[in-house]
Amino acid sequence: MKKVITYGTFDLFHKGHYNIIKRAKALGDYLIVGVTSESYDIERGKLNVRDSLIKRIENVRRTGLADEIIIEEYQGQKVNDIIKYDIDVLVVGSDWRGKFDYLKNYCDVIYLERTKNISSTKLRSEGIIFNMGIVTDDIKDNDFVQESKYVSGVHVERVFSEDEKIAEDFCSQYELDSWWSDYDKFLSDVDIVYIKCRQSRRAKFIERAIEQGKYVISDAPVTLSSDKLRELFEKAKEHKVVLIERLTLVYLRAFNQLVWLVHSNLVGNIVSVKCAISQDDFEGGKSFNETVSSALCAVMKLLGKDCLEVNTNAVTDEQGKFVYDMITMKYKNALATIEIGTTVDVEDELVIIGSNGRVTIPNDWWNTGYFEANISGKEFLKRYSFNFEGNGFRYLLQELMIMIRDKRTECTRMFYEESVRLLEILEDINQI
Q: Are strands 335-341 and 322-330 parallel, antiparallel or unpaired?
């Protein structure tokens, strides 16, 4: 007897789930289906799961295809299950290609291509699954496709690029349903659009998407004009949709807890925020404006919008290429510094100095998972740690799904006025 096993959350059960179970069943004589538990979903960073474990198991049972259903409860269980049940074939989706190759020492591993066009099912018509598309001018996806798989109720299906070859290659690489070089046709079958093209083109695509009633996520800065940004936000309100900047820091539980604790006098009154970031190390080396936007976001969340004075001290090499900058922001009772370097050694960290101690987020602070508090008079560091998975994109998507559910037209993690003020400060920096 040839035994096959496959695993999944199987939340909001749809055609794609049924097909992978059906195809797994056809590969052997006896099929075991593992359904992830709530605790394991939390552990591995799966967000927004709607259905209970009992309902998800029942949906798998009702297919009539599973000979046995088990619960996947912990990391590494697959190895034990393969040995315990004498499995011949493990079946997983092709989006995990290569991740489970180590299990080939125990059984055959088969990666099945994903089922396309599931958003056209009854689930989408009921507003349960939302179809997403990507606007791009390169082959990178910023892990958006992979991160979306950890948020129930969303499904990336389409890609648009003005360059047909890029669109086609992107679609093939990430196994999407379709690619387009006609923007209106691309928009016709998406609910949410992620804009990740070069900065100078973003506003044009955002405005058109909003006019078509689409929710929009955009890399930051959306534009280099604060007036244009305000116009886009007003248009989003008018069309009852949301425009969200990809400043993932503000969606992380650890960072929000940090802001709350600091504002609750964890280390007394804040006198300094020091933010250091290596531009080349920041998500693969973004532009200056994109890099400094995340730093400005952190400073504003900690010290507020009322910056009195901004100064920049950019250093260039003999060819005039940017090398290093120290930006200072003067507040009424505090000072913020943002240190950015490219070819020089800058140690990534975020340090908050208060009248009664300091808080430190070492290394890649924009992916805040934990921070340390050194409080005056205490001989030990207090460490705060929170669950953080992926690159943070899934937490932004989770918040967007909550906003759609609650029919909110403004993001409370980053208010529109905060975004506009951030861009005004960025305008000042670029003019100095």
A: antiparallel
- C-alpha span between 74 and 6 (Å, rounded): 15
Cβ contacts of 414 within 8 Å, gap of 6 or more: 244, 245, 247, 250, 297
Token representation of residue 309: 């004075």
Record the pTM: 0.81
Alpha-carbon separation of residue 28 from 46, 79, 104, 106 (angstroms): 29, 19, 17, 16
For residue 85, what are its two tokens? Answer: 């049940």
pLDDT tens for the chain, residues 1 to 432:
999 999 998 988 888 888 899 999 999 999 999 999 888 877 777 877 888 889 899 999 999 999 999 999 988 899 999 999 999 999 998 878 888 999 999 999 999 887 666 544 455 445 568 899 999 999 999 899 989 988 888 889 999 999 999 999 999 999 899 999 999 999 998 999 999 999 999 999 999 999 999 999 999 999 999 999 999 999 999 999 999 999 999 999 899 999 999 999 999 999 999 999 988 777 767 888 999 999 999 999 999 999 999 999 889 888 888 899 999 999 999 999 999 998 888 899 999 999 999 999 988 999 988 899 999 877 778 888 888 888 889 999 989 988 888 888 888 889 999 999 999 999 999 887
